[in-house]
Prior knowledge:
Blueprint: E1 27-31, E2 39-45, E3 48-59, E4 72-79, H1 94-107, E5 119-129, H2 134-148, E6 157-165, E7 168-171, H3 175-180, E8 183-190, E9 195-198, E10 201-202, H4 206-245
Parallel strand pairs: 4-5
Antiparallel strand pairs: 1-2, 2-3, 3-5, 6-7, 6-8, 8-9, 8-10
Bound molecules: adenosine-5'-diphosphate.
Amino acid sequence: MSDKPEKFIDENGLRLDGRRVDEIRPMKMEIGVLSRADGSCYLEWGKNKVLAAVYGPRELHPRRLQKADSALIRYRYNMAAFSVEDRIRPGPSRRSIEISKVSREAFEPVVLTHLYPGAVIDVFAEVLQADAGTRTAAINAACMALADAGIPMKGLVSACAVGKVDGQLVLDLNKPEDNYGDADIPMAMTSDGEITLVQMDGDVTPEEFKQAIEMCKEGCRQIMELQKETLKNKFTKLEDVEISDD
Ligand code: ADP
């Protein structure tokens, strides 16, 4: 692991990777990348690479696990053994179990589960390459895979983290900021700004926390634009095919 940098932000207000404090890393995404999943998305965000797959809604077995009035969402976040510099031991860890739980909860208020009593919706988020912010990258990809699967949702969910370095809030932490910064606050929110996930590692003042939410809203707004654009591109193309077939 590299050493702690002396300064995270230079005299021109630029971070170690050249971004301004309120800038997110470049992101690109593609949906429908897996033919055997009902919905899927491959997403790159900075050096993070994540693949999300959704299966369902389908009948949940064993039946004793079924919920009478809604579908169950299962979410599995996993980091591939080769996703980090030192190989990760395969299988669930305390960290991946926690991330899976909070990520599932980030979608529960949004997915219209009451339409599918007794069913299960499985979401798999596989981190292929990790470089800080993988839980938020996975949530952005999972949201797209859910939409690609045609799962009805109240709206899209976007996620981004805000942190603190050199006494300043920064949007979308890079690896050194994540490792050595003073705070890391990942959040997920809907297009209405309803927060469905917030975690905090480190210390910020109540005023900074309010500012962090506003910064994160702006980051999520940009991500949501890309999510909407990606969906529009796919479904407009499908419409074109249908029209030309007539
Ligand atoms: P997030 O990826 O959501 O930011 P963390 O803050 O826990 O979650 O992790 C920050 C980064 O540290 C990860 O993105 C990854 O690059 C790295 N990392 C996490 N867990 C491990 C691990 N077990 N081994 C090596 N690197 C890890």
